[in-house]
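User: We ran a pulldown and think these components assemble together. Before we commit to crystallization trials, I'd like a predicted model of the whole complex to look at. Sequences follow.
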Amino acid sequence: MMGEIPVFFLHGLVYAGLLFLVSSGLTLVFGMMNVLNLAHAAFYMLGAYFSYSVLYFTGNFYLSLLVCPLLLFILGALVERFLLRRVHVFGHVQELLITFGVAYIITESVKWIWGNYPLGVNLSGFLTGSVNLFGLFYPVYRLFMFFCAIFISLVMAVVLYKTRIGIIVRASVDDSEMVNALGVNVPLVFTGVFGFGAALSGFAGVIAGPLLTTYPGMAAEILVDAFVVIVIGGMGSLGGAIVASLMIGELQSFGALLIPKLSLALMYMLMAAVLIIRPSGLFGEEQ
Amino acid sequence: MIKQGSHAYLLAWCIFILIVGVVLPLGARQYQISILTEVIIFALFAVSYNLLLGYAGLLSFGHAMFFGTGAYTVAIVLNHIPGLSFFSAILLSVMVTTITGLAVGCLLLRHKGVPFALLTLAFNALFYAIATKWHSITGGDDGLSIFRPDINIGFAQFSTSGITAFYYITLLTIGLVMLFSWYFTHTAMGQTVLLMRENEERMKFLGYNTNVSRLILFVFTSFLAGLAGTFYTLFFQFTSITAISIDMSTIVVLMVIIGGTGSFVGPIIGACVYIYLQDFLSDITDRWPFIMGLIFIFMILYLPKGLSGLIDSLAERLRGRWHLSDKVEIAE
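Assistant: Here's a predicted model for the assembly, 619 residues in total across the polymer chains.
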């Protein structure tokens, strides 16, 4: 049992990285537009399926890492521009419902196009091997996933905190009407951020594909986890998303090791505890 | 979303539906009767959902947790308590669901709007996880089978095993409950919820405890959903994890949006259209959920008031034209 602890700790870190990639887009979009994007996990699933197809036709995994997020950026931007914006005037309920409808249609299309069964993504090259980490053999691919997540998070941090676009995005999260009044094209920023969130989610899907199975239920699975992350971390808070992703990742991993029967319930128990003690989440603003 | 002062209109609707419900199965085929039973069960589920969405303005993506709790509880009590009568089983199941609704409501109603929607989804996932993992009680992926007990009212005994017999029991029970919930929306309590949606601050200033009113409504909807779930199990004589899954929550959202959130009968129309459309489309193509999704998006974009809204506006139009012609005659 003791010898397995480092392995499960690393597994937890890897899953936390994946969760952060998905939940960061979700929380950014929520912070800015006040829209909870229920289609977010569907974009994640599409990322995995697109990657499957790119691999099927070209066999190049790195190509799918580039192409799939780009496709999802376009798809996300289109959804924001042509569906979400049209119902914006009707209020949050309609916005939620439209993203719900998009998620439903994407799931059904995936079943239609790729079939309602799990698909395996096979990798080749050095990603399939294991590496010796201080006497511990660990799969290269999981490490690769973790470093991808770290890299993307760093890039996001630099863009958000060091560039002009980042200032506009952060300001819009705070008060989008004021930013609009200052002469920034906020609707365009919304489209961009929504597309960017979809691309992040799609990227997470691409790297998750080879490790977790690619099947039509994968969206619902990660959606609930990502929701729990942003509830615990506080809706709209990126820092909260990092901390909560780590908590949930490790909890899932050690839960599976120590008390496999209750591992699913642990996450909800943590969420319920946070809700009772701090309803707005660990890093959320008090309402 | 809900119009005031249309009592007579609604009552006429209810009576119309009841009469149609009684007359329609006479001479119909067994298959048609079982579809109709399904429509009634889902109509109750949709009505209970619309009390949350249309009346209180609370968007939930986890209403199947109560539907599923009802579905499972009735199966469990019928399997574990020998000799339990038909209505006691229903009563037990509904009581368990109502208590569940109270517990969940206390926790979730601290939130409104988007966080509330998100939490209902998470809680539905929790209920689903429990139903899948607690194999010894719920049967896990295999589900639970039951036998419908006969109804015994002292001097007489009815068999519930026939499709037509069960149809009339369903129609009677759910019809009465539906009338009661229609009545509920017209009590002071029901109206409070409506006014709270419009202006909660004001209701607070007027001395209403809005949190308690909302909790009562939430518990009431969980009771209705639980009853629908109970009948779902009794109807199929089987329950599986579908009853408590997010897919089931999705179905009720689709029904209510297609039917319209603006009136009491909207969800009933929605359930009707959904079940018959599903029946019709699934014969033609396996991809019928995709078509449902397209209809849903179309509704949100172009007909946010749903089919009942469409019927209303068509009726207004016709009425307007008649009035116009009346006026012209008077002028002449």
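Chain A touches chain B at residues 30, 34-36, 38, 83, 86-87, 90, 92-94, 96-98, 100-102, 104-105, 108-109, 112, 220, 223-224, 227-228, 230-231, 235, 261, 264-265, 268, 271-272, 275-276, 279 (CB under 8 Å). That may be worth checking against your pulldown data before setting up trials.

User: Thanks, that helps.
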